[in-house]
Design goal:
single chain; about 850 residues; alpha/beta; GIY-YIG endonuclease; 6-stranded mixed beta sheet; 36 strands
C-alpha cells in the first residue's frame, strides 16, 4: 500500500500527516499534488509533500480525491516551504497556502441550518441577542456557511453563541469543503465549415428580410477571411449579427460553433506604444559592465535545483547603486542570461506603484514571455497567470512579494528590486520577509539572487562585507556590487554616466517660524516651485501622511477624536472616499487609517460641548489644496492610498504625470519607489521629520531611506534637479546623511548604534505579540510568558539572550484588541521555540519594526 505525507490546509494546524493511497489513486498521486483528505471530523485540502515506504503511525486514513492532475508544487517549492516555515516559526500549512493561487485554495468551513425538531418560541430557552439574530438570519437565508455569517456579524464573536445553539439542538452544523472558486475561462467560437466558394454560393439565400440577409452575409464574409476559429464577440462587432444568426448558419452547416479556452491576461494591451527604441539593448557604462562581469559568471557556476543536494554556493549579490544608476538594465541583462540558459526569472518589486514602468521595460525586452502577479489582480487573472507559469509559458514573472511563490520549475534568477522597502515584510500571519526568503529560495534552486537598492538595509550591507557572521545564513553570504554613478539620458538616445545627484537645500522650519512664516511651504520651497512651473517643468511634493489633518481636537478642553477600536487619533479628510457601514462616503470625514472606522466630523465637542473644534497637523490633501491656492493655474495630481484603491489607478496617475498632463504630483510613500520621471526637476519634502522619532530602533533607517529615495526622483534628465527638504531637526544624522546623499555616513553612525545595543546584524530579534479585548487579560498573559521565558533562558544558561518587556505596543489598541509584546534579543532566539509555540501569540522572527 503506498503512503504519502500531507500538509493539511487548516489555519490552526501545524505539522505533517501520513495517509495511504486507495487503489484508484496509487501511481496517480505524487509529491506536489493537491488532494482532499479526512482530518478529524472534517474534510480538508492538502498538499502531498513526499511519498513514503512506511508511515510514522500504525493506522492511516485514505486520501479521498485528487483535485488537479498536474502537481501544484515543485520539489524545490516543497523544500522552500519546509525551510521557510522552520526559520520563521510559521505553520507549514500556512506557508504552503502562500503558493496556491486564491480561489483554488479552499479551507474547511461549517454549514449551519435550523434543526427540524427545534422550536425556540415555545421552549423556555433563554437566548442572547446574538443567538436570536443568528436564528433569524438562518430562517431568512436558509443554511449558511461560517464565512457567509461572518459578513453579517462584523466585530461580533458569533461562533461561541452558535456553539450553544448547536448543543441545545436549535442548530445543526456539519463540515464542508467549498469547491474551488476559480476555473478556466471559455468563450464561444465560430469557424467556417465549408470552402470559401461554397460559402459565397450560399450568400443570396441567407435570410428572408434585407437586414437579416445583410447581417449574415457580413458575418460569413468575415469568417471567410479568418483562417482560425474566431471569438463570437469579434464576429458580432464586425458584422452586427446575433447569436441567432450564427446558429442559423450552423444549422445550414456553413459554420461550426464551439468553445475555446482563453487566458485572463492582466498585461493584455499594456505593451502598446513600446517601440524599437524601448526594446533595443542600451550601451552599458563601464560601471554596469563591471557589475555584470561579477554577476553573469555565477549563472554557469550555479547548480541544478535538487532539494536532496546541499544549497547552492552561489552568493547573493547586493547591487548598491545610487538612484538612477541603471540597476534595471542589470536586471534585464541577468534575466536574458537566465533565459538563454533555459531557466526562468523572478523579479520582485516593492508595490504595484512601481510595477507599470518595470513591467513595460521587461515586456519590451521579452515580449510575450512576462507574467504579472500582485494583489490587485482578480482571482481569475492570478489563476491563469499561475497556470501559464506552471506550464512554462511565462518564463519571467514580475510582482510584489507574493510573486516569490509563483510555480516556476527551473528558476535561474531571483531579483529583489528596492530591497530596503518595508512592503517586502509580511505584516500579518504568516510572517516572513521576502528579501531573506528570496535568498533562501535562490540557494535551494541554485539560482542567482540580486538584491538592488540605493539605500540597502544596514544589516544587509554589513553582511555583504562580513559574510563570516554566524547568523548570516547557511549559504555563501552576500557579495557587494557597486553602481556609484548616476546615468542621464542624452538626445542621441543613449546615456551619459557620472551625472551628479540633485543638490539638496535643507530648510530649518524653526527659523521660518521665527521669521513669521507659518504656512506649509517655506520661502525657498514656494519660490522654487514658482520657478519650476514657470519653466514648464514638473515638481513632486512629498509628505508621509494621508488626509488633511493629523488629528482633530477641542481647543477648550483638549479632547482628541479617537477611533473606538484602535484608540488612535482619527484623521480629517476633506475629500473622503472611504465608505463606512453602508453609508455614503461623503457623509464621513474622520477616518481611522488602521481599521477604516469612519464617522462624521464633530460640530461640538462630545466632552465639554464647545464648538471650538479644530484640525491640527498636515496631510497630503492639505498640501494639494495649498498648491492650488498659491498656483491656481498649476495642474495637480494626488497619489496616495485614497486615490489609488481602484484597479490600475497607480498606472493611470503615473501615466498622466509622465505625459505632462499635470505639473505637480503630491503624494506619500509611493513617491519613494524607483520612478523615472525626466521632467521632474524639483522635489519638495514638506516635512522630513515624520516617523523619525518613533520609539523604534529602526525608525532612523526608515526615515533616511525614504528621504534619500524621494530626493532621487529629481534630476533624472539633462535638465538637472533640486531638492528642498523642510525639517525641524536639521542636525539629526539621518537628515544630514539624506541631504548629502551620503549612505556611508549614515551607515557608519547606524552600525555603531546597532553594535552598542546588540541589534541586527550583531544579534537577532524575535517579537511576540498577544492580543485580547480585555486589557488586563492581555497584560496578564504577557507577564506569564515573560516569566516563563526568563526561567527557560536561565535554566538553559543562555545568558546572552535578553527578554525585553513585556510592555504595551506603541499602537496599544487595534481593531478593539489590546496589544502587549515581548522582544527576545540574542544570537539565536528562534531556537527557544523549536518545539511548541505559545498558544494565541503572534511570533515574528527578525521584525522590521517594534511598534
Amino acid at each position: 500500500m503506498p503512503f504519502v505525507r500531507v500538509a493539511v490546509n487548516l489555519p490552526a494546524v501545524s505539522g505533517e500527516f501520513d495517509y495511504h493511497l486507495p487503489e484508484a489513486l496509487a501511481g496517480v498521486v505524487h509529491a506536489g499534488h493537491l488532494v482532499t483528505v479526512p482530518f478529524g471530523a472534517q474534510i480538508a485540502q492538502g498538499i502531498v509533500l513526499e511519498m513514503l515506504d512506511q508511515p510514522a503511525v500504525a493506522q492511516t486514513k485514505a486520501v479521498l480525491d485528487l483535485l488537479d492532475d498536474a502537481p501544484i508544487l515543485s520539489a524545490a517549492q516543497i523544500e522552500f516551504a519546509r525551510r521557510l516555515a522552520r526559520e520563521t516559526l510559521n505553520p507549514l500549512a500556512a506557508v504552503v497556502n502562500l503558493m496556491i493561487p486564491p480561489g483554488l485554495s479552499q479551507q474547511t468551513d461549517t454549514i449551519f441550518e435550523l434543526s427540524t425538531k427545534s422550536n425556540t418560541q415555545s421552549s423556555n430557552i433563554e437566548l442572547s441577542k446574538t443567538q436570536l439574530r443568528l436564528i433569524e438570519l438562518v430562517k431568512e437565508r436558509g443554511p449558511l456557511r461560517g464565512r457567509q455569517i461572518d459578513r453579517h456579524f462584523t466585530r461580533v464573536d458569533w461562533r461561541k453563541s452558535t456553539q450553544g445553539l448547536v448543543r441545545r439542538g436549535v442548530l445543526i452544523s456539519r463540515s464542508v469543503l467549498p469547491p474551488a472558486s476559480v476555473r478556466p475561462k471559455f468563450v464561444r467560437t465560430v469557424q467556417l465549415a465549408v470552402p470559401p466558394e461554397v460559402a459565397e454560393a450560399a450568400m443570396p439565400d441567407l435570410g428572408k428580410t434585407a437586414s437579416t440577409l445583410e447581417r449574415r452575409q457580413r458575418a460569413l464574409r468575415f469568417l471567410i477571411r479568418e483562417p482560425q476559429a474566431a471569438n463570437v464577440s469579434w464576429v458580432y462587432a464586425e458584422s452586427g449579427c446575433t447569436l441567432a444568426d450564427l446558429q442559423e448558419l450552423a444549422e445550414r452547416e456553413l459554420v461550426v460553433l464551439g468553445e475555446a479556452e482563453v487566458f485572463r491576461d492582466p498585461l493584455e494591451g499594456k505593451g502598446q506604444g513600446l517601440g524599437e527604441k524601448a526594446t533595443r539593448d542600451l550601451v552599458l557604462t563601464p560601471d554596469q559592465e563591471a557589475a555584470l562581469s561579477q554577476i553573469l559568471p555565477s549563472f554557469t557556476n550555479s547548480q541544478a535545483p535538487d532539494p536532496q543536494l546541499p544549497d547552492s554556493q552561489s552568493p547573493a549579490f547586493l547591487l548598491h547603486g545610487v538612484t538612477g544608476s541603471g540597476k534595471t538594465e542589470i536586471y534585464l541583462r541577468a534575466a536574458a542570461e537566465a533565459l538563454r540558459l533555459g531557466k526562468q526569472a523572478l523579479i520582485l518589486v516593492p508595490e504595484i506603484a512601481l510595477t507599470p514602468q518595470t513591467v513595460r521595460r521587461f515586456m519590451a525586452r521579452f515580449p510575450g514571455r512576462v507574467g504579472l502577479v500582485h494583489s490587485k489582480l482578480s482571482d481569475g487573472e492570478r489563476y491563469d497567470t499561475w497556470r501559464r507559469a506552471r506550464s512554462g509559458q511565462l518564463p519571467v514573472i514580475i510582482g510584489a512579494r507574493s510573486a516569490l511563490f509563483a510555480p516556476l520549475e527551473n528558476i535561474g534568477l531571483i531579483v529583489v528590486d528596492e530591497c530596503h522597502d518595508g512592503s517586502y515584510n509580511q505584516s500579518e500571519p504568516p510572517f516572513y520577509d521576502a528579501v531573506s526568503a528570496a535568498q533562501l529560495y535562490a540557494r535551494i534552486c541554485g539560482a542567482v539572487c540580486i538584491l538592488g537598492s540605493a539605500t540597502p538595509p544596514v544589516a544587509l550591507k554589513y553582511q555583504a562585507y562580513n559574510s563570516h557572521l554566524p547568523h548570516a545564513g547557511d549559504g555563501s553570504g552576500v557579495r557587494a556590487v557597486s553602481l556609484p554613478s548616476r546615468l542621464t539620458p542624452v538626445e542621441t538616445g543613449g546615456v551619459t554616466a557620472g551625472t551628479s545627484l540633485p543638490r539638496v537645500h535643507v530648510v530649518d522650519m524653526r527659523e521660518e517660524l521665527k521669521g513669521g512664516r507659518r504656512g506649509i511651504f517655506s520661502r525657498v520651497l514656494a519660490e522654487s516651485l514658482a520657478e519650476t512651473l514657470e519653466r514648464g517643468e514638473q515638481a513632486i511634493l512629498f509628505l508621509n501622511r494621508r488626509g488633511t489633518a493629523t488629528y482633530v481636537f477641542c481647543r477648550d478642553c483638549g479632547y482628541v477624536a479617537k477611533c473606538p477600536n484602535c484608540d488612535t487619533p482619527l484623521t480629517y479628510h476633506v475629500e473622503n472616499s472611504v465608505p463606512a457601514r453602508g453609508q455614503k462616503p461623503s457623509n464621513f470625514n474622520l477616518l481611522c487609517h488602521r481599521c477604516a472606522y469612519a464617522r462624521r466630523a464633530f460640530e461640538k465637542c462630545p466632552q465639554c460641548g464647545s464648538n471650538q473644534i479644530r484640525e491640527y497637523g498636515l496631510g497630503s490633501e492639505r498640501v494639494e489644496q495649498e498648491v492650488r491656492t498659491l498656483f491656481p493655474s498649476a495642474r495637480t495630481l494626488r497619489w496616495d492610498w485614497e486615490t489609488t484603491r481602484e484597479k490600475d489607478a497607480h498606472e493611470v496617475i503615473l501615466t498622466h504625470f509622465a505625459n505632462h498632463q499635470a505639473d505637480v504630483l503630491v503624494g506619500t510613500q509611493m513617491l519613494a519607489k524607483g520612478l523615472d520621471l525626466p521632467l521632474v526637476t524639483l522635489v519638495g519634502i514638506v516635512l522630513a521629520d515624520v516617523g523619525l522619532n518613533l520609539p523604534d530602533p529602526f525608525a532612523p533607517e526608515r526615515a533616511f531611506q525614504v528621504l534619500t529615495q524621494v530626493a532621487g526622483r529629481a534630476g533624472r534628465s539633462a535638465r538637472g534637479g533640486r531638492v528642498v527638504m523642510q525639517t525641524f531637526q536639521p542636525g539629526h544624522y539621518a537628515i544630514q546623511a539624506a541631504a548629502g546623499h551620503d549612505y556611508d555616513m549614515f551607515y557608519a553612525r547606524e552600525i555603531a548604534f546597532r553594535r552598542e545595543l546588540g541589534y541586527p546584524p550583531f544579534g537577532r530579534l524575535l517579537r511576540l505579540e498577544y492580543r485580547h479585548k480585555d486589557s488586563a487579560e492581555a497584560e496578564k498573559a504577557a507577564q506569564v510568558l515573560a516569566s516563563r521565558l526568563t526561567t527557560a533562558i536561565e535554566a538553559e544558561k543562555r545568558m546572552e539572550t535578553d527578554v525585553i518587556g513585556p510592555v504595551p505596543c506603541f499602537f496599544a489598541k487595534i481593531n478593539g484588541e489590546y496589544r502587549w509584546q515581548i522582544i527576545l534579543r540574542g544570537p539565536q532566539p528562534v531556537s527557544l521555540f523549536q518545539g511548541r509555540l505559545p498558544e494565541n501569540w503572534r511570533v515574528e522572527v527578525d521584525p522590521v519594526s517594534l511598534l
